[in-house]
Amino acid sequence: MQGKMGYTAEELNMIYESVLNQVEEGIVISDDENKVLFINRAAEVIEGVDAKKSLNKSMEELYSPTENTPKHSRHAIVLNTGIAANEYINQYVVKETHRVMNVIERMFPVNYDNRTIAVYSLIKNLPVIKKNMEQSLELYNHFEEEKPRNGTKYTFNSILGNDITFVEAISNAKHVAQNQTNVLIYGETGTGKELFAQSIHNHSVFQNGPFISVNCAAIPATLLESMFFGTVKGAYTGSANMAGLFEQAENGTLFLDEINSMDISLQAKLLKVIENKTIRRIGSEKELDINCRILCALNEDPLECIENGKLRRDLYYRLSSCILQIPPLRKRKSDIPLLCNCFIKRFNREYNQNIRRIDDGVLQIFLDYQWPGNVRELQHVIESAYSVSEENLSVLCLEHISPYYRSFLVNEPREHADQDIVNQRSSNYAVVPTTRGFSMEGRSLKEVMDDYEKNILLFCIQRNSGNVSAAARELKLTRQALQYKMKKYDL
Predict the structure, then answer these.
(1) 164-187, pLDDT tens digit by residue?
(2) Which of 27, 238, 333, 374 is surrounded by the most beta carbons within 10 Å?
(3) Spatial distance between the Cα atoms of 191 and 78, rounded to a whole number of angstroms
(4) Distance CA 457, CA 463 (A)
(5) CA–CA distance, 103 with 124 (Å, rounded to integer)
């Protein structure tokens, strides 16, 4: 017997069965004698039954009612009346497993030639639905209910991770937040230094005061001093009476990120402020007392910064009474599935999508990848899928990730390597990309040169593990100039 398009009845059955087995709802179909015709894979999981063993058995033989449900099989009722049962909460016992089921069920007749020839049920597991609702509510509370009102975004409840070293870092941060010690936070770019800094602020006696964050690498050295200390009118041409950041952070926290990018002479003045708790505006002879907590952060190893002349030794020792080290993502890969689920739920809301999970193969690639950009890079990789993928996507696969990030994930050597091994491997590369392989191919000289410059920038940024400041220093560019070029070439 041939079906449409030349399919046999057996082939059509295989097609229909394959489709029904991909449906998330449990499906149970019974014939006109109320015997089981089909049970899909989801129903097997929900009820704990064996679909093959259940075929041709009556519904009464497989299931029994409880004291809370009708004595007659609802399948039998729909079979006899030919009327669909609207969605309802049902409770029954699976005889084979003795499992008491609490489900949300819908039931429909299949009517043909004025008679009901089959009945099918669509089943949702009520406890699973409740759990998903609780997790969604918990996630909402995690990001919304605990949201502080002092201009910051994060508290310790915002920090996700179960890795033992990361949990220890959180515990240490909570402990130091309770006193007024100045703290040095050390972590690679993208590990969450500002997240920790804001959490410390919101867990401290300064939580009702302002939180002011300054990226020292993003501000020209000539402006930093006046920004920090403020000015008085007449100090220099065009100057006005202006409070500096230390004054603006009164009774709050001043967070100085990437202080290894701060001019050495300015670091000496910062050390004096930390020791004396006083500042003097530029052009003024009056000392002003300050009362704010100072948190500093480094994206490079402190001792290496000292050896390379990026950090004053005396400033380091003044801050080293409390150093918080945030482990990189490659050192806590067990947290990657947790972080992925968090980002998926967040971006589902922001992009009005309904991605349920990440493909197992992609997750394995994530677990093998070294993540030089750390959690921030993971977040951007996942968000890229939302930016470029089609609507109604349910599973995030490799092809949904933007080509830019996909090239790193696929081409990166994926041994479970320590960063030292990765750096050693990188040192075997050529110093810069060569012109080999560059062809005019009808292009102008400018197009070829732009292409070559883009490759040099990309190579240098990768070699410095995504650290823009370090890449800029190697290229002998200002950070702002490199950022401009990165934007120009969409890097």
Answers:
(1) 889 999 999 999 998 888 889 999
(2) 374
(3) 58
(4) 10
(5) 5
DSSP letter at 261?
Answer: G
Q: What does the block give as tokens for 410? A: 């696929």
How is residue 334 written in tokens?
A: 């067990």
The total number of residues shown for the chain amounts to: 491
Rounded CA gap, 483 and 129, in Å? 46
Q: Which residues in 415-449 are b (16+ Cβ under 10 Å) and which e?
A: eeeeeeebeeeeeeeeeebeeeeeeeeeeeeeeee
Burial class of 27 by CB neighbour count within 10 A (0 to 12, 13 to 18, 19+): middle
Q: What percentage of the chain reaches a pLDDT higher than 90?
A: 29
Q: What does the block give as tokens for 339?
A: 């972080």
pLDDT band at 204 (very low <50, low <70, confident <90, very high): very high
Alpha helices in 96-220 (DSSP H): 126-140, 164-177, 193-202
Type of residue at 301: D
Amino acid at 118: A
> How many CA atoms does the CB half-sphere of 55 hold within 13 Å?
6
**Distance between CA atoms of residues 286 and 397, nearest Å:** 62
CA distance 353 to 389: 10
DSSP per-residue codes, 16-76: HHHHHTT-SSEEEEEETTSBEEEE-HHHHHHHT--HHHHTT-BHHHHEEE-TTS-SS-HHH
Distance CA 248, CA 239 (A): 18
The CA distance from 435 to 97, in Å, is 69
Write a three-state SS string for 136-166.
HHHHHHHHHHCCCCCCCCCCHHHCCCCCHHH
Cα 154 from Cα 381, distance rounded (Å): 22
**Mean pLDDT, the chain, integer:** 82
Q: Quote the Cα angle for 238-276-202, to 5°.
A: 85
pTM of the model: 0.55
Query: Rounded distance, CA 199 to CA 153, Å?
Result: 9
State how far the alpha carbon of 12 is from the alpha carbons of 29, 361, 371, in Å: 17, 30, 46
* Residue 40 CB neighbours (<10 A): 23
Crossing angle of helices 374-388 and 403-411, in 10° steps, is 130
**396 residue type, one letter:** L
Is the separation of the CB atoms in 30 and 5 below 8 Å? no
| CA dist., res. 77 & res. 317, Å (int) | 81
Map out the domains of the chain with their CATH numbers.
4-129 (3.30.450.20), 148-327 (3.40.50.300), 332-426 (1.10.8.60), 429-491 (1.10.10)
